[in-house]
Backbone:
């Protein structure tokens, strides 16, 4: 999924909306719209 | 370097750090308080939509309980001082990491191979610095 990427998969990821810890909705694509982002998917919290 | 303590270094590198977990916002908030992650963005993906979209797999029994997994987990715990708590969500779901630039291009992707396989914050930071 790196380099030239899989455009469809990234589009799908970008359009997903998740709540944050304050229950505010965040569209994933907005996370990298202005600045690069490092996303870390945890197996579990803590 | 612990991931949650590395936020400042990511900011200095011009890269945002966002954590995603497979539980509810309430769990995310509790996690944020527990590790003093004020200001960090923690997303709650209870249905694991983003895990699937990012191509992160579920572990089989060997990847959950095998010697590689256990050893990785013990090493990580010893280095980090963070002991695994109760797992909320699907215990077989593996995680990973990505660095994405402002064009939406994935510059780096790591998918965990077993339950104990987690990226070192310093490695992620090195990849993040190349994005800025």
Residues:
């Amino acid at each position: 999924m790196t380099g030239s990427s899989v455009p469809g998969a990234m589009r799908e990821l970008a359009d997903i909306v998740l709540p944050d810890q304050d229950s505010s909705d965040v569209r994933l694509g907005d996370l990298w719209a202005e600045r690069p982002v490092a996303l870390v998917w945890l197996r579990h919290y803590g | 370097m612990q991931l949650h303590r590395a936020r400042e270094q990511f900011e200095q590198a011009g890269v945002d750090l966002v954590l995603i977990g497979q539980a509810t916002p309430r769990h995310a908030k509790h996690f944020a308080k527990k590790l003093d992650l004020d200001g960090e963005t923690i997303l709650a993906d209870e249905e694991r939509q983003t895990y699937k979209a990012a191509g992160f797999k579920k572990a089989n029994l060997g990847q959950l309980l095998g010697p590689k997994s256990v050893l990785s987990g013990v090493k990580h715990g010893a280095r980090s001082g963070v002991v695994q708590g109760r797992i909320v969500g699907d215990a077989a779901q593996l995680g990973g990491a990505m660095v994405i630039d402002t064009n939406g291009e994935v510059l780096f992707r790591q998918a965990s191979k077993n339950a104990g396989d987690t990226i070192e914050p310093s490695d992620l930071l090195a990849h993040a610095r190349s994005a800025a």
